[in-house]
């Protein structure tokens, strides 16, 4: 019923949005002398904010300087390749299936276009997938990951951003347990909830305060007609977006008030940046209900992976089986979604992976979004990821012993991505103790 009411409200507001658009155009007409007065600019700004605040946002495009082609596809996901096939190292970016579209990682993709053959998962909006396509839960997600690794391998490197860190790590563990020849050479886990018992955030605490039945009752709704997936039980994107906004409500209110002032003052560049960000941020997709509930229960309530209790198709997900795929964990000092230590836990759980194949990086001053996008990501994190992948590529075994020794042996001034995890954790702890005493290692 909630979903139906939301769609009905959207339809009822359509005439008001049209009227606001007409009023905005009239107030901005360059042939009208009133268009140059502060009052007219204020009316136009109000009309724009009303229209933007009440409409639904379409799926954005990547709009990158590279051609796009689909190289793998199933009902709930397709893999997009950027540019023509090449001899560059292959990198699969597994985008979050958590409300936003894969285009949220546009900057992440752009950072590696020159150095890698980049692929990205483009998850489907569940409300657009017919019921005839069947279910999609966490087990299916892991199956999809394994199938993608097989299709894009060998010599594949994987980057999981936030939510997919758990299914990607589970897929790698299952492949390692079966001695699969196409297991990825390396995996980078960015802000992933591997063990949410570490530095729990607001997002982590809510599942501990509610039962799975509460989530089933309050978060799962049937998709109404005329959507292609009508009848499917989903966690609606608009509900997830409301949760995202509520975490930083004051920041979003300030951003919209600033945009109003920019429009009144005629600051078109600042207003354009606001539109660009929120056109992406406010575009959301639905998740299948079974995937959402299984993820909540497995990851946030039971901590199944961290406790060694997670299973996939009745087979154990044992991170101790990982012995070939190198792991890199990246966290942000100011991450309010995935707390410090939650992603790093993967390195501790992979007990049989050699220490030289484990790398940890804590980005000082970065929040959740900043560890996979923005200036800090481009300048500091992306080069470390590229160096980590290069060091753990198959070609590294053919490098001369002298060169390999230079890379493997930590020394003064060496890049963080080249340090074993134990040394890096110690360095980050010393850095935090001197620069940010309020942050716990």
UniProtKB/TrEMBL annotation:
It comes from the Bacteria. Transmembrane segments: none annotated. InterPro entries: AB_hydrolase_fold, PHA/PHB_synthase, PHB_depo_C, PHB_depoly_PhaZ. This is Polyhydroxyalkanoate depolymerase. It comes from Methylobacterium durans. Residues 191-392 form the PHB de-polymerase C-terminal domain.
């Amino acid at each position: 019923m909630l979903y139906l009411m939301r769609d009905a409200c959207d339809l009822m507001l359509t005439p008001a949005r049209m009227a606001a658009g007409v009023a905005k155009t009239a107030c901005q007409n360059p042939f009208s002398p009133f268009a140059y007065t502060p009052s007219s600019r204020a009316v136009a700004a109000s009309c724009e904010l009303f229209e933007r605040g009440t409409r639904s946002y379409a799926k954005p495009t990547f709009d990158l300087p590279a051609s796009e082609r689909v190289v793998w596809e199933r009902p709930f996901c397709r893999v997009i390749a950027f540019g023509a096939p090449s001899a560059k190292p292959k990198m699969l970016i597994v985008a979050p299936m958590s409300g936003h579209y894969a285009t949220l990682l546009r900057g992440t993709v752009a950072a590696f276009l020159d150095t890698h053959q980049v692929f990205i998962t483009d998850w489907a909006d569940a409300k657009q997938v017919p019921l005839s396509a069947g279910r999609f839960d966490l087990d299916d997600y892991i199956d999809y990951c394994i199938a993608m690794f097989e299709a894009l391998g060998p010599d594949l490197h994987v980057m999981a951003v936030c939510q997919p860190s758990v299914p990607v790590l589970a897929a790698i563990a299952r492949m390692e347990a079966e001695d699969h020849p196409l297991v990825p050479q390396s995996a980078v886990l960015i802000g992933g909830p591997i063990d949410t018992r570490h530095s729990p955030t607001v997002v982590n605490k809510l599942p501990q305060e509610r039962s799975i039945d509460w989530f089933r009752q309050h978060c799962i709704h049937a998709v109404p007609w005329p959507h292609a997936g009508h009848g499917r039980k989903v966690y609606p994107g608009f509900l997830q977006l409301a949760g995202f906004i509520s975490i930083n409500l004051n920041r979003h209110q300030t951003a919209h008030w600033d945009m109003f002032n920019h429009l009144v003052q005629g600051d078109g560049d600042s207003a354009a940046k606001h539109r660009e960000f929120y056109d992406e941020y406010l575009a959301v997709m639905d998740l299948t209900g079974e995937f959402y509930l299984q993820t909540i229960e497995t990851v946030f309530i039971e901590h199944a992976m961290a406790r060694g209790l997670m299973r996939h198709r009745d087979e154990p997900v044992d991170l101790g089986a990982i012995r070939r795929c190198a792991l890199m964990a990246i966290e942000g000092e100011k991450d309010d979604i995935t707390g410090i230590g939650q992603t790093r836990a993967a390195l501790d759980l992979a007990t049989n992976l050699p220490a030289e194949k484990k790398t940890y990086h804590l980005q000082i001053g970065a929040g959740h979004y900043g560890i996979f996008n923005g200036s800090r990501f481009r300048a500091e994190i992306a080069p470390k990821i590229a160096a980590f992948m290069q060091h753990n590529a198959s070609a590294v075994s053919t490098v001369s012993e002298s060169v390999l020794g230079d890379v493997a042996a930590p020394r003064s001034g060496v890049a963080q991505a080249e340090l074993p995890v134990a040394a890096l954790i110690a360095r980050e702890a010393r850095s935090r103790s001197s620069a940010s005493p309020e942050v716990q290692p």
